[in-house]
Amino acid sequence: MGKEAEPHAEFPFAPRAYGGPPDEYAQRRSSCPLEPIVLPSGDEVLLATTYEDIRDVHADTRFTRNLRYPGAPRLLAGRDIPDDPHALVNMDPPEHTRLRRIVQSAFTPRRAEGWRPRIQELADGLLDAVIAGSPPVDLLDSYALPLPIHIICRLLGVPEEDSPRFRAWSDVFLSTSTATADERARAGAEFAAYTDALIADRRRNPGADLLDELINAHDAEDRLSEGELARMVRGLIIAGHETTGHVVGRGVLTLLRHPDQLAELRQNPQLLHGAVEEILRTEVPGHGGLLRVATEDLSLPSGGTVPKGQAVLAPVVAANYDPQQFAAPDEFDIHRSAESRHLAFGHGPHFCLGANLARVELEVAIGSLVERLPGLALAVAPEGLKWTTGSRICSLVELPVTWE
Ligand code: HEM
Questions:
Q1: Rounded distance, CA 47 to CA 12, Å?
Q2: Best substitution site from 345, 347, 362 to test ligand 1's pocket, by max atoms within 8 Å of Cβ?
Q3: Ligand 1 neighbour 50 (Cβ under 6 A)
Q4: Residue at 334 is within a domain
Q5: Structural domain count, the chain
Q6: Does ligand 1 lie within 6 Å of residue 239's CB atom?
Q7: Whole-angstrom Cα distance, residue 345 to residue 325?
């Protein structure tokens, strides 16, 4: 690796080319697998870098997601995601279990499969429009992002025409240094006002969507507080579109950078499942994973200890590149059977609620593109692609493509 890892280095680290995991993850994994880093807020936390440590931190409920006490660590200074007591991601059992039960039936493998025809129809329509246009086309804006936005809007029962506003608000939430604390607070207040109005309107004009089920869980069954209801709607809108769209965009780029594997996939659609799992292993944008605090003295498999009250950041991206789990982790290989082990969707109680849906979306999005645009190519040199900076997620700004 050459360079020594710095124990108190400033996080986030610069990604490698094409949004790859920072070199620091590999350096620290071999020399200081569980040592402090300094977050943009100025707080110091331990950074876990081995697969086993990261999986344990996500699974062990002795790590709390309740970061709402004086002096609790923050990724960013000012009000941020962990301040919200009503968000699923910020809860511990038993509240977390109660809330998760209310929504999880909408995201089972069977329900996700039930969405496949609609996702396919939508992908076909978007691709018809792409093909009818003239290249170059930004595939991120015309295909990868609209697909999951449309599906989460349909699933919840939220007007799709409002999606440019969700995207703008998400961009602000997901930034680390480009948006100020005031800008984040303003975006949060606007989004809250929007969802409050949406819920009020749906109470007057009920439908049969997940939004109605959630309203019913509050109004008729008293299982969900008003704050939890509004926060759940916002959480699902953000979580439901941003990551999936960027994984599709990054996945398409990775396939284009590996033309032999793309050709193989085109010839043999049976490889799609493995290709999607490998894309999930390598293309989660950003580090993946929120801060957790130890509620008692704990030790982790790498041999490191975490004293009570100590915060740990356990990025799933670092786990997915641990050579102890994935031979030659920097090599993209659609034949690798990574599904049962990669941590792209996290692990344990906060395991991604939308994982089944995201997998169907990815299979349809990538499979349809590969089938319908055999001459797909980048319209710019790969080195010329623009990537987001200062964001919690590391994604393409655009993906200009052309085809024959
Ligand atoms: C490829 C796409 C996606 C990836 C890589 C992804 C990744 C993740 C990860 C890593 C976590 C756990 C974070 C942690 O515990 O620190 C998570 C949680 C979550 N995800 Fe996803 N996600 C994706 C798509 C979706 C979709 C489509 C939805 C909703 C429709 C969704 C909803 C959620 C929710 C609600 C949580 C919080 C669960 C909880 O706290 O119990 N995600 N996701």
A1: 11
A2: 345
A3: no
A4: yes
A5: 1
A6: yes
A7: 16
Token pair for 396: 């393409």
- Any idea how long the chain is? 404
Domain CATH for 143: 1.10.630.10
Domain assignment present for residue 7? The answer is: no
| Position in ligand 1 atom list of the atom nearest CA 58 | 15
Residue nearest to atom 39 of ligand 1 (CA): 350
Strands 311-313 and 44-48, sheet pairing = parallel
Q: Confirm whether 142 is domain-assigned.
A: yes
Task: Please identify which residue in the block is written with the tokens 């511990």.
Answer: 92
Q: Read off the pLDDT of residues 103-142 as tens digits, 9 standing for 90 and up.
A: 999 999 999 999 999 999 999 999 999 999 999 999 999 9
Confidence of residue 242 (pLDDT cuts 50, 70, 90): confident
Which tens digit of pLDDT belongs to each residue from 50-82? 999 999 999 999 999 999 999 999 988 877 788
